[in-house]
Amino acid sequence: MTNKELLNKTLTERFGHRPALFIRTYGCQQNVADSERIKGLLLECGCIECEDQEKADIILFNTCAVRGHAEDRVFGNIGRMKAVKAEDQNKIVIIGGCMVQQPHIADSIKKSYPYVDIIFNTNNISELPGRILDYISSGKRVLDPACEEYTLNEGIPAVRDSLRCRAYLPIMYGCDNFCSYCVVPLVRGRERSRRPEDILREFRECVDAGYKDIMLLGQNVNSYGKKDGSETEFPDLLRMLNDVEGDFVIRFMTSHPKNATKKLFDTIAECSKVSRHIHLPVQSGSDRILKLMNRHYTREQYMELIDYARKVIPGVFFTSDIIVGFPGETEQEYLETCSLIEEAQFYAIFSFIYSKREGTPAAVMPDSTPHEIKAERLNALNEIQRQVTEKLELGLIGTRQKALCTGLLGEGSYECRLNNNAEITVDGKGEVNQFKEIIVTDYRNRRLFGKEC
């Protein structure tokens, strides 16, 4: 009897019925993709999906470690499990994800949250059934998240939300960049790429299942295949997927500037199904701060990438990540970041106040700037970006666009996402997950509006 078959039998005996599984996911798209595979694995083991945490037999949190705020939210929800377990000791509480890969967090859960039954490692999802079996058979908590071997989680079916237009498709895991502020390499492990044929197979499955918006995932997609000596680099993979028959758009996250090349931008320009949106995190506009961050590029080099891409990809939109208040950042260096936003003309940014992560080099760097000043700077920076976004959206008025309907807003209008990732409200009767040809007609209250052609 396999672990899956044994777990199916054991869980059914424990609960007297097929156990209801509730998963709450925090953090990035990669975590969403991991949760889809976790769900696929546990459904194979006899579980059924449950969207109501109170009615679930198995409650699983897939966590994020990128910022302290995310961890605070997780701990708040874990704390509520005390009452859940007090009411029904039979329920199983499981914590996985990046957060518990940090030793100090795992120790805190062991000592302060006795109602957490299992900790597991999302770098080796296939071990989860065995951990659940160990917990049930021994009656003892299974709390070692360590993973001796990082796998690619191949062969585990992803159970995606059938109501969504977008499918997340991991092409690689881990990271080798070791930015000084980032805990990801410490919790996700080193870079490892999936085989092109495995990606192509899953991509075709997504297309056949009807997904129109397929997002390729990796901490640094631009380094895809390089560490493994593959002949297929990321631009080659884009071409391969672009050639698959069907009507869809290919997006990707995240693209690191130090590995972005002219070949990548030329490929995007030549591939009609690849989105004209590139997320290229810059983090800071100051060369000194970029060096302290261990980013391996300068502001000038970053802008050269932006300028070349705009030259070869008409209408491309860039988005970026910005950290405000990195340790030692001066007022002048902050202003350099503000000026970069105006120079680069980002369509949108994901901006955050620096969050100290234990175990990273930045965590021990001196930092004398009060949080209140950092918050003021963040607000001012976001206002600069708001004005840039408004200018770009006003520039879309009168243009004809291919738009994917992502949701209905009631009688007579629907939401769409354009090829360049802009969102728009369209007059008409839309059908979710279908493309429409539209004309952008207006911009008001920070929102684009359009009509069908």
Structure description:
The protein has helices at residues 3-15, 29-44, 68-79, 81-87, 103-112, 128-138, 184-188, 196-208, 234-242, 262-270, 287-292, 299-312, 331-344, 371-394, and strands at residues 20-25, 48-49, 58-63, 92-97, 118-119, 166-170, 172-173, 192-193, 213-217, 249-253, 277-279, 317-324, 348-353, 400-408, 413-418, 423-427, 435-444, 447-452. The chain is of the alpha/beta class and 453 residues long. The strands form 5 sheets. A 5-stranded parallel β-sheet has the order 2-1-3-4-5, with helices on both faces. Strands 14-15-16-18-17 form a 5-stranded mixed barrel. The radius of gyration is 23 Å and the shape is globular. The mean pLDDT is 94.
Top CATH class of the largest domain: Alpha Beta
**What class, by secondary structure content?**
alpha/beta
Please tell me the overall pLDDT. 94
Indicate how many domains the architecture comprises: 3
CATH architecture of the largest domain: Alpha-Beta Horseshoe
For the sheet with most strands, the description reads: 5 strands, parallel
Radius of gyration: 23 Å
Distance between the termini: 59 Å
- Any idea of the CATH topology of the largest domain? pyruvate-formate lyase- activating enzyme
